[in-house]
Known about the structure:
The chain is an alpha/beta fold and 357 residues long. Helix content is 38%, strand content 17%. The strands form six sheets. A five-stranded parallel beta sheet has the order 9-12-15-8-16. Helix 4 packs across helix 5 (139-146). Mean pLDDT is 85; it is low at 62-81.
Amino acid sequence: MLAASPGTAFTVTDLARRLGHSGGAVGNACETLVSRGEAVQSGSKPRTYQATSATVAAARKVVPPSRPASGATPQASRQHPQQAPASPPPGGRPVPIVRPNGQQYHPRALAKLPDVEALRRLREAQVAVLLYGPPGTGKTSLIEAAFPDLITVAGDGDTTVGDLIGEYTQDSNGGYEFVYGPLVTAMTEGRALLLDDATLISPKVLAALYPAMDGRRQIQVKAHKGETIKAADGFYVIAGHNPGVHGAVLTEALASRFSVQIQVGSDYDLAASLKINRTAVRIARNLATLRQAGDVGWAPQLRELIAFQKIAEVLGTEAAFANLVGIAPLEDRDTVTEIVTKALGSPVTALALGRQL
């Protein structure tokens, strides 16, 4: 995205909405690009990022996952009128569920049920759920598979009450009209609302959401004549939390609104069944174990492993391993390099341009 618009400064929110990834993951990626000299932070309030001369070259090194842009507004989402069945046929496994971007989601076990089915039952019972875990573990994928009517808000530190409820916007005639936000849309249409990276949103902003989640199930739109919005049947709030993302704070007020909190980690068995390079999966497992023990702060998740396989198909396995080293945070890169080198039996360095051809 940065490479395609070299003269444009993007906020994390802009990038998250267009790329369809969580704000926390996008923010971390931007900081990594800046540390490599492959992008520059051009503003601070809000944080904005812009391409440098090295950005285009860096973009050519990898093939991005096939995920569609989510549109310019936080409420943009595709709807699927029918929920795919989540329960397995007798004696079999649950069938994969097609997400809005066309990719398949393979259900996992949760409370002796397919995870998708468990979330749907919790929605019917109006029990709010918080999914937490590192970026790339499949939190958003699960929620998209469970709720075809989903509306997503990509949360970050710049998210405002207006981004949730709505605000006045200038129309084509030069006047102003009030445009409702994703929260109001979800309430009036009885849809599911995902607060992606909810713990990056200011507690003061989140407070505007709480009356819709408790027994009142309504909010007051003070900016629009004090209008009262009541939630229709089916309205439901679910949230994602990345504990390791800088600035993420799970406040007591937020945690108390989500009665069920589910840890989400990468399914490395699924990675193996998807025929991703076995050595790459083994390295990821080892790093995940070290991460759990507190010896490193990063391990490749399913998202990185899927990207690894795509890169290997395009540039070769050697380049894919080099890129795996290169995407590791600087503070963990030496450890990751050592583990990858040991697994391959030959030295590996971060993917970089060589001499002029």
